[in-house]
Please model this.
Amino acid sequence: MAIPQKKITAANIFQWLWKWIRQLCEWFIVGLIYLCGVSSIIFVFSIFYFVFREGAPFLRDCFDFKNFFLSPEWYPTSISNKRYGILALLAGTGSVTIVAMLVAVPFSLGTAIFIAEFCKKKTKEAMKIVVEILAAIPSVVWGFIGLMVTNPLIVKLTGAPIGLNALNAGIIVGLMSVPIIVSIAEDSIRAVPDGYIEAAEALGATRWQTVYRVILPAAKNGLLAAVLLGVGRAVGETMAVLMATGHSVNIPFNGEFPYFHALESVRTLTATIVAEMGEAPRLDAGMNGSFPAEARHYQVLFVIGIVLFVITFVINTIADLAVKGIRQKKV
Amino acid sequence: MEQKTNISIETDNLSLWYGKFQALYDVSSRISQNKITALIGPSGCGKTTLLRCFNRMNERFANVHINGEVKITGKNIYDPDVSLIELRKAVGMVFQRPNPMPLSIYDNVAFGLRIHTQAGRINRAQEAEAVEKALQEVFLFDQVKDHLKKRGTDLLLEQQQKLCIARLLPLKPSILLMDEPCSALDAEATEAVEDLLRTLKEKFTIVIVTHNMAQARRISDESIYMLKGQLIEHSRTAELFLTPKDKRTEEYIEGRYG
Model:
């Protein structure tokens, strides 16, 4: 039987073309969406690549674990004896983070519990908006508050010679990390199945007993993740910290009671990068392939960037695993 | 007078509204002590709502308004001087889906004791004894005695539901409310829970909501048939199923309605 042949007419050609155009469009759009999907992965890797590329010569030529991590001597611009020890900077970041978490954790967990369990619907809406506003305040404004409000307040209340110190920056950064902790902690409290709460209440538990004995244990992984993300925020914060710490290379810990002296000025990893990057020249290698000594300052700042990257990466990974822990248990 | 003492729960013209929707219409009933009373009726007839009135669990929802009285051993539990905590201690509740708390088996059973006794009033040995006794009463102890530290949520559904019953017992309640306790269980597990209920009724007044009419016939002594928020008929189970007085009850139990 002969197959009836389609006549080649203008209409047929048009139809055929149209089909192909539509197919191409389909591929194009799918490809575009795919690209958007993987872009965040590309961005992360390329950021790491560029930071690493700038810091690599230092890592290759003058990196020495002991002198880098365990020495508090940060003299990158010394003419005769340049020293790149970041111990004091690590201690500065650590001290600010500790104070920040001491401020932020009780406040934000309390707020999250209040929003999720204790307040009425209208209060809840209002509270959430206010907390979001807190997240929207630019960090330089927080820095201002550190300079102009908490600075004189700390001097007045504690008699410290200077109000720009680890305590000041810790308070500011703590308040800055409240919104992120609150929103994640509140989500994880609300994710506790109602059956648990009903069970406790039917046994005659009061509201607080229910929260303390059932809801918090059930939500603890999510709460841990929330706190860790807050820590990540505190470690990465730059501008407010630059303005409020006093920016002096100093280790606020020593063997003398109370071991941690929050009223001393400190300097953090992030603030060091932002303050010194402008005056560190990016120099190329000479003819023989070795860099001039002045080039190292720029490079070491990028190595600090790598250190920060690793710290936040580790914290985020732990937080992620903690959140996954909740999901697995629920199934 | 003698009959009066055998009444455990008494409702008097009880009406309930969720917002503008009226869920119960003038329900008056007398539920006898140490008997199993089944609440039956089609979905949405208000049987769960009525059950949740007996320990005031309806108050968890906003917009609930109640008229009338619920008397437990002669005292109206909606009086302002009634302590919700004491009420719920005396009236235990088992839910449709087994809902052990995300704690260990031991902690689940000890939970009630811990929240109701002041710190230091009860020592570890007494607590352990009460937990063991409660688990034995629901025939669960032999199965779980070697792993009391395991999470209650990891047990089989049947064991979870028994655990949910066991955790009520250390508080020595007088009434157990059960909201379709077997609907999430398979036939064998249902039988096990039903056997358990038969032994428990010697000590407790049991009110059970069930969708399963065969179950109501098997285990209950008295039945209450409800329809659209109204109590239609309340009598001994054998009578209600064999010679229903109301036409609507008859239609329902014959399967022509619902």
Remarks:
- The interface with chain A takes residues 55, 57, 60, 84-89, 92-93, 95, 97, 99-103, 111-112, 114-116, 153, 164, 167-168, 171 of chain B (CB under 8 Å).
